[in-house]
């Protein structure tokens, strides 16, 4: 009996070692949290026309720093920000899921390069909205909340009217817009793409143009370009753009 008691601890230890080592080559155990995607830190929102463009880039790493290889999609949430005495961001019902993005079939979003774009049209003038996004993997691991961004919906300026004409050295744009209904006018943004390609997200100009003419000299003979212009205003301390103007095509022309 005494011999059996001495033998039992050794037997338990051997069984424990067998379970921990498993079959084949030994390796370090990976904690489940190491496989979770890193939180997204690039969430942003801008108003363009009557919509909010909510944008973000996907995570490339796991929360613990390893390369993320099985990203499956995103969950985008929005909440209505209430007056301070009523607001409760931590309440369970504060955020509502706007969309689930499946990377195998991303129907509700657009992708431009590495940027994901959700167009939120369900807005009420004067209401402030706050957004957050999470990513998830094919194994079901879900990231922590991203950075949170908020914006108040305002009345955007009307789109301007655009004309474009080519010359041997440049393309000249002429445009005019009405004063904004809300806020103050800040200028215009010019967008350009090659004919048949979508317009980029960022304008040619670094700051809103205060004049009504733009000379585009960074063009190549033989290429036809598409142009659009937006009116820019400042309202509620925010910069807001109109919907795009009419799209006009132009390019360099040889002298007669």
List keywords for this structure.
256 residues; mainly beta; Immunoglobulin-like; 2 domains; 8-stranded mixed beta sheet; 1 helix
Shape: flat
Structural class: mainly beta
The termini sit apart by 113 Å
Order of helices and strands: HEEEEEEEEEEEEEEE
Organism: Geomonas paludis
Keywords: Lipoprotein, Signal
Signal peptide: 1-21
InterPro entries: FN3_dom (IPR003961), FN3_sf (IPR036116), Ig-like_fold (IPR013783)
Overall description:
This protein has 256 residues and is mainly beta. It folds into two domains: 32-152, Immunoglobulins (Immunoglobulin-like), CATH 2.60.40; 161-250, Immunoglobulin-like, CATH 2.60.40. Helix content is 8%, strand content 38%. It has one helix and 15 strands; from the N terminus they run H-E-E-E-E-E-E-E-E-E-E-E-E-E-E-E. It has one helix at residues 2-21, and strands spanning 44-48, 51-57, 71-81, 96-102, 110-112, 115-120, 128-137, 149-152, 161-166, 171-176, 184-194, 213-216, 225-235, 238-241, 248-250. The strands form three sheets. Strands 1, 2, 5, 6, 11, 13, 14 and 15 form an eight-stranded mixed beta sheet that branches. The chain has a four-stranded antiparallel beta sheet with strand order 4-3-7-8, with no helix packed on it. A hairpin with a 2-residue loop joins strand 5 and strand 6. The protein is flat and about 65 Å long. The N and C termini lie far apart (113 Å).
